Automatic annotation (TrEMBL):
PROSITE patterns the UniProt entry points to: UMUC (PS50173)
Similarity comment: Belongs to the DNA polymerase type-Y family.
Superkingdom classification of source: Eukaryota
Source species taxonomy: Eukaryota, Haptista, Haptophyta, Prymnesiophyceae, Prymnesiales
Name of this protein: DNA polymerase kappa
Domain UmuC: 101-287
GO BP annotations, alphabetical order: DNA repair; error-prone translesion synthesis
MF terms in GO: DNA-directed DNA polymerase activity
DNA sequence: AATAGAAGGACCC
DNA sequence: AACCAGGGTCCTTCTTCA
């Protein structure tokens, strides 16, 4: 029944969430300028107003949560805290550090494929895959000017022009990317014939057997893996995260991107100190909306901060969701075999071999 | 009372 | 000068039907 009311004052909070996420290589003054340009070019569009409407609904939901939060009595909070602590002990007790998982993420995949086939795009060329209406992937050179995936091309063009450079567009060519994805997969198979293809530029590999068989560390396997991918594709780089769970491996794959790797040691202490300072948004499954809820209702920005608010977390969310978040905060998620079929096994549904990252309800 | 869809979100690349 | 994707999976909630 709430009438959707959009106040003028709500605008900044919504545009500030657009295309401003941190990537490297920009000063604060640049970022402010980029934000301003994106806002100026977006503010009158239908798309922007739709976005504001959604943000407003989320705001209402947050306000309702806040109210509930304030009503929680001390006793109630205490019992939620005990429940949370029991759950944490249980989850921690079942922590599985036995497997070595890798998450492989191709660097600027579409752009890298294009550059590989067109020498005029090599080096530090400022270009984007996509068109003036929508950008799919930006070259690293273009990212320095604030160009991002899912950004309208005409805005990207303006960002570059303001910086005195011109942005070149390259049309998307899916068959090309699938071809390179298949080449990369021939490399993945050398390490894990049953790897999980999460998307065309991302995969999970269980390196446990490979490491045991060759008597090498996860770090060494990651180095070999990156080398094999480079060779199989004749020039594409990727970033690799190594950890005892797929969730941690995925987060780790982002740490030294591009063309790098990062290992989270398979020890409880190392895992906890790796995940603690992580912004909540890094957790797969926590997106724009959930991040806002957690920050604006509980005041939590990082995993450690949310862990400190575990009682309220349990009070406000369903048991299922609370459990899901708590395990993520401990660095747990996706240790065991994946619930669905893997590469090389007969497909149940036939068409799509791709799986999402982690069907939740799965045993942790 | 249990359940199977459908619809609507959130989230991912 | 105009101009803001499209492919998915999964979860929650609502509705319906035997």
């Amino acid at each position: 029944m709430a009438t959707v009311r959009i106040s003028a004052a709500a605008a900044p909070s919504s545009f500030s969430t657009l295309f401003t996420h941190e990537k490297a290589g920009m000063s604060n003054v640049d970022k402010e300028k980029i934000k301003r340009i994106v806002y100026e070019m977006s503010k009158d569009s239908a798309h922007f107003k739709e976005q504001e409407r959604r943000d407003q609904r989320v705001t209402e939901h947050i306000n309702a949560c806040r109210e509930r939060h304030q009503r929680i009595g001390a006793d109630e909070l205490k019992s939620h805290e005990q429940r949370a602590d029991r759950l944490l002990v249980e989850l921690d007790g079942h922590r599985n550090l036995e497997r070595t998982w890798a998450c492989v993420d191709m660097d600027a995949f579409f752009a890298a494929c294009e550059a590989l086939e067109d020498p005029s795009l090599r080096g530090d060329v400022v270009f984007a895959v996509g068109g003036t209406s929508m950008i799919s992937t930006a070259s690293y050179a273009a990212r320095r000017y604030g160009v991002r995936s899912a950004m309208p091309g005409f805005i990207a063009q303006r960002l570059c022009r303001e910086a005195g450079v011109s942005l070149r567009f390259v049309p998307v060519d899916f068959p090309k990317y699938l071809k390179f994805a298949e080449l990369a997969r021939t490399a993945f198979r050398l390490f894990d014939p049953h790897f999980i293809a999460a998307s065309c530029d991302e995969a999970f590999l269980d390196l446990t057997d490979y490491c045991a068989h060759h008597a090498i560390s996860g770090a060494e396997a990651a180095t070999r893996l990156r080398h094999q991918v480079l060779e199989a594709t004749r020039g594409l780089t990727c970033s690799v995260g190594i950890a005892s769970s797929r969730m941690l491996a995925k987060i780790a794959s982002d740490v030294n991107k591009p063309n790098g790797q990062y290992v989270v040691p398979a020890e409880r202490e190392a895992i906890v100190s790796f995940i603690g300072p992580m912004p909540l948004r890094k957790i797969p499954g926590i997106g724009r909306v959930t991040e806002r809820v957690l920050r604006e209702v509980l005041g939590a920005e990082t995993c450690a901060e949310l862990l400190a608010k575990r009682a309220a977390l349990c009070a406000l969310f369903t048991a299922r969701v609370a459990r899901e978040h708590l395990s993520a905060l401990l660095g747990i998620g996706g240790e065991g075999p994946p619930p669905l079929q893997r590469e090389g096994e007969p497909s149940q549904k036939g068409v799509s071999q791709e799986r999402t990252f982690e069907p939740t309800g799965a045993p942790l």
